[in-house]
């Protein structure tokens, strides 16, 4: 998608980048990931380090956010999984008696997600392509476009970096029992990091796709690739 003298190409790229952010969850899913941990940390401090009070605070905030997301049209299954993560984290902390263990679910989910993205790249089914292709109604047509397949594979490494970054920060804080700093890190490394990740992965996508490619919404078929190679 080339930019012409009127800047229409740049405007279209910006629109697609913003669409990519919405497709990948946007601000609402970031609230799911950041506010309940903050509520847990605040509840723990304000209650005199009561794990039970901290857990109740986190679950209550998770329920409020879940109801708001449902009313806003979010997918019920996504809301359920987010609330379940908060509930399981609270139960683990109550069972162990250690507030810091509330974040074990977050550590495990980030490790599993990073591994899943790396495997998807290795087997040439990059998760970025699967997610965006499905939400755009393309299903797996993008895999028949070599340019899109290569671009999604490279851009998916940016998302691997997101999970690795979180683990590099979260694990040391968990090991030293830093409940409040870990709560703060959940905020800093959620919405801001997701935005940075979307911008970076979009840049990789655009840099990898050839200049004449119509964009992520328009996967080329084999016949288009042949015509491009033959110059017809």
TrEMBL record:
Keywords, alphabetical: Membrane, Transmembrane, Transmembrane helix
Keyword Membrane: yes
Residues spanning the signal sequence: none
InterPro entries linked: UCP010219
Transmembrane feature ranges: 51-70, 77-94, 114-136, 157-176, 182-205
Entry-linked Pfam families: DUF3159
Protein name: Intracellular septation protein A
Source organism (scientific name): Actinopolyspora righensis
